[in-house]
Design a protein that fits this description.
491 residues, alpha+beta, eight-stranded mixed beta sheet, 13 helices
Amino acid sequence: MKVAPPVSPGNPGSGERRVAPGPSTMHCSLWRCIIVAVSLVLLGFIFQENKEEHVEYRVSVKEKKEVIWKAVQEQISSERKNHLETFKEMQQRAPLLQHAKYRFLAGAPPQQKKLLTVGISSMQPPGGSHLLDTLRSVFEASSEPEWRSIVVLVHLSDPDPEWLNQTATNISRLFAPHIEARELLVIHGLLGGSPVPGNLSDTNHTSPCEALYSKQKVDYALLMNFASSLSDYFLLMEDHVHCSPKFVSAIYWALSAWEELPWVTLEFSSLNMSGKVFRSSDLSRLTSFFLLFLNTPAPLLLSEFRLLLAQDVPIRFTPSLFSHVGVSSTVEDSCFPVEKEQDFDEPDNPTATVVTDMEVFLDLISQYAYTLNQEDFSTLDLLKGNHLTVIMDRPQKVIRIAVLTGLNEGERYRLQQGQVELGYDPIEEPKGCAHYTLLGPLVQGNLDQRVFSEEDSEKVSCIRLLVLASQKGWVLIRQIRVWTQPEEEES
């Protein structure tokens, strides 16, 4: 179902739509895969505990946590390839979620399907809650047209009835207009039915972290299970987050550009959980996946979920739209390694040659698009398939790319439909690279994305701006900015 955009509509990107796989009848095979996978995870914890006894005097506490985190990731990754097809067939909800029960604490579901659900799960924290600050940030960072495109779903997961009632009362008092407009909904969910392997009600966890992992995944599974029918897309958020202004519009335009392209997760921050957007049609599989690995950190499972559905590298936009507020508890800090936002200096644009088949006028050479100064490159009447390609003098470990077209303000002279590709294996005829992979489409004429690659993958040799549709009139390619990882950091 199409929902009216929060701002004037634009041209979406182009590409091939991924079709979700059909239902499965391979129950026996699936449960064998589940049992093997869960067993490997549990064995990994036992193995890791023995290993830690030998390295106790040689590594710091931080290093121990990193070793455990990596070991769990390797165990899940080893099973990923074997069970990919089986997992793709998993369409039905997990047994516990089929009988989940929900209670409305404030508000009611929207009458029409929305573009985006902002999903927040919150429990009673030991050091005080930032939930109200998070909700205030969500609405203050958005405009009225944006509010009409979203529904904010809050799942209060703590069983304490006094805390539930008091929190729901505070939300109702502070955000009454949004509740009345069905833009804000507060619920409390409970699991039901027969337990799956590794009983979630088991409180005999071997560590505080395991208890937190299980609790967190159940809470988020209940949240996403309820949200699956509310909107086309789902934004995952924690309850201690600050939102950047106009974040809804930024997400809308990114979704429009990526609409026809294959993706599983779009990331709008570097936080472990917050800022990740999913298609609502994928939520049933994600919730089932959460309940299969009970003692595995949820952020790690989000990465593996993306890989299972064949998105090999993260798709992360910069700058971040979300940041943490407040201070987490000691237990949470030790159980969930925090990925801090990377601080980028100015772009370094390594030496390169720029080639193009676009029209060149007077002294406006294409190299101007790559120079880090006030110069730019203008061209006229682009044709589908035209390109402007940056060819590095030597391959580089690229970590971020920004491509800016049009004037600083407004839509004049933008490239309406284009995409940025990464090239490998430089060739002389025609000058460029032998093969390219998609980094991403332009979003409102621009692109600013992190570049991720496997540790042993080859370095980038080309950056190609490709025109996807013919366009009459002048087009201004203002600047191509490149950030690279210094060689000393690579080693």
